[in-house]
């Protein structure tokens, strides 16, 4: 039953129910489609009477045009209240089921404690796949060919590669590009020929029953099995947190060897039919390789630039901004595949080229969307791939040949080790940071094979390659061996060898300054030495990029921004958001240094402001500063439509949150005045101006310091209050309670009291203060309810804390 | 060049190679460059370095040139600057940019790290008093952003302040409001750049072979 028929069925069934003039018109209207469908049947009718249904319907549709009345009386039956039509939804339903299964499995693994630290996820997923395949087989059903090559290459692979390409750490990648290319090109070639050639030799040995295997299929098999798989590598390496150098070496190799694999695959597949290779073919193969790889990169770069250029103009329709990036990248992949160029390289190039420009153009929200979508798609794809691999193992016809399989596994290991050691020997002559023996071991051991090899094997023509089944079995075994044995043991081995791990430290502004500093310094030294090394060329390229390309691809003035300033703005922005989110810095993460204020480093200190006078100005000055920063960073969100609109987002939550925040704070200040009369708990204890509390209160948290500088330049005496007081959890908890009751902004008004209370040393005193706070809070509530009806709303309102949660993803 | 003179230079070079760690070939190349820059004089002056046109676009031009004439970088434990440097001093400065050897122990790595960071530190510490003050840091960042136009100058101060705050808070922890952080000492400097792998990053590829003027048929 075709989909079109199914789609028409609702209107068909409706025609039985409604009897009106309107319906007659509709039926006449429907007649056109019914006739084109020929003897189409609406499914519920055919389900009800299987035998005569078709005749009836033919009649029905024939008469429908001429005489509707008779038609109705003729086919009149009870209207089916509930009917089942699984076929209607089968395909999308099953797809959703698979995705759901995959996601649930992923969820499950992370719920089981310690499981994911022992066994890599990829192994578990394959096992799940095996189980699911087994269940399907037990149920007596045909196991569906889930890991179909088209599905794999057109749907499952691109998200993973785009994710990898978009988040590719460009700097280490380019610094090691020579080594990566060496491993990817020469290493893969070596592996293919070594494995293929020796396999052929083994097959010729009497008694293996493999003498019918010829040389070219062997080489083809070698080229399929030799490529390191990016999906498997990513899955395993993400978990072992290896240092950046090794990660980029193995991962970069797995990405770039695609071109070699594609060319070798097509070459050997072609010649297996012809059966003869001339030197001319070899030359053509080399040219083909260059075209496939460079062409792939060119296609990707073109689409990347197009995407960047498009994103220049999306400032008015932010909702579809992320879509452009995905569509352009997918188009790049498809276009490359269309010419049998390397789609993987196209995607990598596209992602890497567009990223810096797109990021400067799109809004923070869109950027978050892009990030989340990429991560979501890639992780679902990855999960599905591994599950499907398991299912396909159960499904496929297998031809197990001990010799062939075991020789394959051994040869793969041997060739990988020889290849890596040999190539490193050559590469180390040119590298400044040499690869140690440990590094070599990890690179060799991390050469995992995966689903790409399986899909390529699956693509082989059965008639041309009678041993396809045996190849597939060997490929699956090799994949299982690498993923299970190597994937599971690599983590303990990394620990055992004490290989340097990745440092998870946040990048500090000092490091960023010195990165830039070093770049210029080294360029300068190279210039003094008088030779043009890679720093020199990098500098040239950077300046060209800044002068011409950025101007074309980045909207507005942002193209002028040097990297350091961009970094600084990002940091500043992040902190400003954190500040608003936490209602003025209550919950600043402890990672942010918050114990030193600008006063401590400024050579000329301002005279310490008087507490009473400083209070109103402090809030005002700081408020102004935060507002300024938010405004300059949020790309003029004010100009956006505030009403709901399908083409824009609902009014910006930052803006909303901010306004709420201000409003509530205004009220709070009023309230506070009254409160001062009522009780002394909530305000700064002005009576004891020299208490340690006040000294503490003058300390500023780190982000406040920026505002402080600016404020002080205006000549406004300011005071900074340290709200993040990790030493006194009590006060923080109190504040949280407060912000739950009232608005987040409320805490801003109250924090003087809280800080004063919380900052005092001594646990006993902390407790004291905590007790004191409670009546104060209650008193305030009652007070607000009585004296200010509007305040009640303010206090019962959940407040902008909800919106703050929405903002949370903006802090990457 | 006469035979006796070349023999003498060879001996000198060997001596320099032992002290600076460069290979003889690299020293030969650098010597050639030195003579080219100094216009065949024995010594190199600031003007000679300033005349390198490729440096014009470098925001750190002045700082780099200063580093070559800074006594602290010439492994003399005294402050101040010199007016001219000889080839040996030139090599000394250059040797800060040599890559690390393949097999080095942890101590050697730490020593190398300190050496390289000391060089950078000295570039920031313009008055050679052992600390980088806020003023000095601001000036360094301003210079770093000097090619960025007006935005650079406006932001430079804020960036330097933020960076200084970061240093103060990571090295000192909590500070009383009347305390004063006078500046980054070298120990602080080491501490904040702990995760910054300078030993693998601060190096220049000194060619073993002089590709520019291949000595053929000599």
TrEMBL record, chain A:
Keywords of the record = Antiport, Calmodulin-binding, Cell membrane, Glycoprotein, Ion transport, Lipoprotein, Membrane, Palmitate, Phosphoprotein, Sodium, Sodium transport, Transmembrane, Transmembrane helix, Transport, Ubl conjugation
Annotated region Disordered: where?
742-812
GO terms (BP aspect) = regulation of intracellular pH; sodium ion import across plasma membrane
Please indicate if the UniProt record lists Phosphoprotein as a keyword: yes
Can you name one GO molecular function term for this protein? sodium:proton antiporter activity
Question: Which residue windows are transmembrane per the record?
Answer: 21-40, 119-139, 151-168, 180-202, 214-236, 248-268, 283-309, 339-358, 379-396, 402-428, 440-459, 471-494
Task: Note the InterPro entries from the entry.
Answer: Cation/H_exchanger_CPA1, Cation/H_exchanger_TM, NaH_exchanger, NHE-1-like, NHE_CaM-bd
Q: Which intervals hold domain Cation/H+ exchanger transmembrane?
A: 100-494
The segment(s) forming the Sodium/hydrogen exchanger regulatory region domain are: 591-692
Membrane topology type, per the record? Answer: Multi-pass membrane protein
The reply to whether Glycoprotein figures as a keyword in the UniProt entry is: yes
**Spans of biased composition, class Acidic residues?**
802-812
Matching PANTHER family? SODIUM/HYDROGEN EXCHANGER (PTHR10110), SODIUM_HYDROGEN EXCHANGER 1 (PTHR10110:SF59)
Q: Which family does it belong to?
A: Belongs to the monovalent cation:proton antiporter 1 (CPA1) transporter (TC 2.A.36) family.
Protein name (database record): Sodium/hydrogen exchanger
Species in which this protein is naturally found: Oncorhynchus mykiss (Rainbow trout)
Give the taxonomic lineage as stored in the record.
Eukaryota, Metazoa, Chordata, Craniata, Vertebrata
From TrEMBL, chain B:
Name the Gene3D superfamilies for this protein. EF-hand (1.10.238.10)
> Which Pfam families does the record match to this protein?
EF-hand_6
Which GO biological process categories is it annotated with? cell differentiation
Q: What InterPro entries does the record point to?
A: CHP3 (IPR052490), EF-hand-dom_pair (IPR011992), EF_Hand_1_Ca_BS (IPR018247), EF_hand_dom (IPR002048)
Q: Where in the cell is it found?
A: Cell projection, Lamellipodium; Cell projection, Ruffle membrane; Cytoplasm; Membrane
**Tree of life domain:** Eukaryota
- Span of domain EF-hand: 112-147
Provide this UniProt record's keywords sorted from A to Z: Calcium, Cell membrane, Cell projection, Cytoplasm, Differentiation, Lipoprotein, Membrane, Metal-binding, Myristate, Nucleus, Protein kinase inhibitor
GO CC annotation terms, alphabetical: cytoplasm; lamellipodium; nucleus; ruffle membrane
GO MF terms, alphabetically ordered: calcium ion binding; protein kinase inhibitor activity
- The keyword Cytoplasm appears for this protein: yes
UniProt topology in membrane: Lipid-anchor
Q: Which family does it belong to?
A: Belongs to the calcineurin regulatory subunit family. CHP subfamily.
Q: Which PANTHER family match?
A: CALCINEURIN B HOMOLOGOUS PROTEIN 3 (PTHR46823)
Record protein name field: Calcineurin B homologous protein 3
Organism listed in the record = Oncorhynchus mykiss (Rainbow trout)
């Amino acid at each position: 039953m075709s989909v079109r028929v199914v789609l028409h069925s609702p209107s068909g069934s409706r025609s039985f129910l409604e009897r009106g003039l309107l319906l007659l018109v509709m039926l006449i209207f429907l007649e056109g489609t019914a006739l084109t469908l020929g003897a189409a049947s609406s499914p519920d009718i055919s389900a009800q009477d299987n035998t005569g249904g078709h005749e009836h319907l033919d009649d029905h549709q024939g008469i429908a045009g001429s005489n509707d009345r008779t038609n109705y009386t003729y086919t009149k039956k009870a209207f089916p209240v509930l009917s089942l039509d699984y076929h209607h939804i089968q395909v999308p339903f099953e797809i959703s089921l698979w995705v759901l299964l995959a996601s649930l499995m992923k969820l499950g693994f992370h719920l089981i404690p310690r499981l994911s630290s022992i066994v890599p996820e990829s192994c578990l997923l394959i096992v799940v796949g095996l189980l699911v395949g087994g269940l399907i087989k037990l149920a007596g059903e045909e196991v569906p060919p889930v890991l179909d090559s088209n599905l794999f290459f057109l749907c499952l692979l691109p998200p993973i590669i785009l994710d990898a390409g978009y988040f590719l750490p460009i700097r280490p990648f380019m610094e090691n590009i020579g080594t990566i290319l060496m491993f990817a090109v020469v290493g893969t070639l070596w592996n293919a020929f070594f494995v293929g050639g020796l396999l052929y030799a083994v097959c010729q040995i009497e008694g293996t029953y493999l003498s019918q295997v010829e040389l070219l299929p062997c080489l083809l098999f070698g080229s399929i099995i030799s490529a390191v798989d990016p999906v498997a590598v990513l899955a395993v390496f993400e978990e072992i947190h290896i240092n950046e150098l090794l990660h980029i070496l193995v991962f970069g190799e797995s990405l770039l060897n695609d071109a070699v694999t594609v060319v070798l695959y097509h070459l050997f597949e072609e010649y297996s039919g012809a059966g003869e290779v001339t030197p001319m073919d070899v030359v053509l193969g080399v040219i083909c390789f260059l075209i496939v790889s460079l062409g792939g990169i060119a296609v990707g770069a073109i689409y990347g630039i197009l995407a960047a250029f498009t994103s220049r103009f999306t400032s008015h329709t932010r909702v579809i901004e992320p879509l452009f990036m995905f569509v352009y990248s997918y188009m790049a992949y498809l276009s490359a595949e269309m010419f049998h160029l390397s789609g993987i390289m196209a995607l990598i190039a596209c992602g890497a080229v567009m990223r810096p420009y797109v990021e400067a153009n799109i809004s923070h929200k869109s950027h978050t969307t892009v990030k989340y979508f990429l991560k979501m798609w890639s992780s679902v794809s990855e999960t599905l791939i591994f599950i499907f691999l398991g299912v396909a193992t159960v499904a496929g016809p297998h031809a197990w040949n001990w010799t062939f399989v075991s020789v394959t596994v051994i040869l793969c290991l041997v060739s990988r080790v020889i290849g890596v050691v040999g190539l490193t020997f050559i590469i180390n002559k040119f590298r400044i940071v040499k690869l140690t023996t440990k590094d070599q071991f990890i690179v060799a051991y991390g050469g995992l094979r995966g689903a790409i090899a399986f899909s390529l094997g699956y693509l082989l023509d059965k008639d041309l390659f009678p041993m396809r089944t045996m190849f597939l079995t060997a490929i699956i075994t090799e994949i299982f061996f690498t993923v299970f044995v190597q994937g599971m043991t690599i983590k303990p081995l990394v620990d055992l060898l004490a290989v340097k791990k990745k440092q998870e430290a946040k990048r500090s502004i000092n490091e960023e300054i010195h990165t830039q500093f070093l770049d210029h310094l080294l360029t300068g030294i190279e210039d003094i030495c008088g030779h043009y090394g890679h720093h020199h060329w990098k500098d040239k390229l950077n300046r060209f990029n800044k002068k011409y390309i950025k101007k074309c691809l980045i909207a507005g003035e942002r193209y002028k921004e040097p990297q350091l300033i961009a970094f600084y703005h990002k940091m500043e922005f992040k902190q400003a958001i954190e500040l608003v989110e936490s209602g003025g810095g209550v919950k600043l993460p402890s990672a942010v240094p918050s114990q030193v204020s600008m006063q401590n480093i400024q050579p000329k200190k301002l005279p310490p402001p008087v507490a009473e006078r400083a209070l109103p100005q402090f809030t005002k000055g700081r408020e102004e500063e935060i507002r300024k920063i938010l405004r300059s960073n949020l790309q003029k969100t004010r100009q956006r439509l505030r009403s709901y609109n399908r083409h824009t987002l609902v009014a910006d939550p930052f803006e909303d949150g901010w306004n709420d925040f201000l409003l509530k704070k205004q009220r709070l200040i009023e309230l506070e005045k009254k409160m001062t009369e009522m009780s002394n708990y909530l305000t700064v204890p002005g009576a004891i101006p020299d208490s340690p509390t006040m000294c503490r209160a003058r300390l500023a948290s780190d982000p406040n310091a920026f505002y402080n500088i600016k404020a002080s330049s205006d000549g406004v005496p300011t005071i900074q209050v340290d709200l993040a007081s990790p030493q006194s959890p009590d006060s923080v908890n109190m504040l949280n309670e407060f912000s739950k009751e009232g608005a987040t902004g409320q805490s801003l008004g109250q924090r003087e009291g809280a800080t004063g209370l919380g900052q005092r040393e001594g646990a006993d005193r902390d407790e004291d203060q905590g007790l004191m706070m409670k009546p104060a809070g209650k008193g305030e509530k009652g007070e607000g309810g009585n004296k200010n009806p509007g305040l009640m709303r303010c206090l019962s309102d959940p407040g902008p804390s909800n919106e703050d949660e929405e903002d949370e993803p903006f802090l990457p | 060049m006469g035979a006796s003179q070349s023999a003498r230079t060879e001996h000198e070079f060997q001596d320099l190679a032992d002290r600076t760690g460069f290979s003889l070939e690299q020293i030969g190349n650098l010597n050639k460059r030195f003579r080219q820059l100094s216009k065949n004089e024995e010594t190199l002056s600031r003007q000679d370095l300033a005349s390198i046109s490729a440096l014009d676009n470098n925001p750190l031009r002045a700082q780099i040139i200063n580093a070559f004439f800074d006594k602290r970088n010439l492994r003399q434990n005294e402050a101040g600057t010199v007016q001219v440097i000889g080839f040996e001093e030139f090599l000394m400065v250059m040797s800060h940019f040599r890559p690390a050897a393949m097999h080095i122990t942890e101590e050697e790595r730490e020593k190398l790290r300190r050496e390289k960071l000391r060089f950078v530190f000295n570039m920031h510490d313009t008055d050679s008093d052992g600390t980088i003050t806020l003023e000095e840091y601001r000036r360094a960042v301003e210079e770093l952003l000097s090619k960025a136009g007006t935005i650079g100058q406006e932001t430079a101060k804020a960036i330097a302040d933020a960076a200084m705050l970061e240093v103060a808070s990571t090295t000192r922890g909590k500070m009383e409001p009347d305390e004063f952080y006078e500046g980054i000492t070298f120990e602080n400097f080491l501490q904040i750049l702990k995760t910054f792998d300078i030993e693998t990053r601060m190096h220049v590829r000194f060619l073993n072979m002089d590709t520019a003027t291949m000595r053929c048929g000599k």
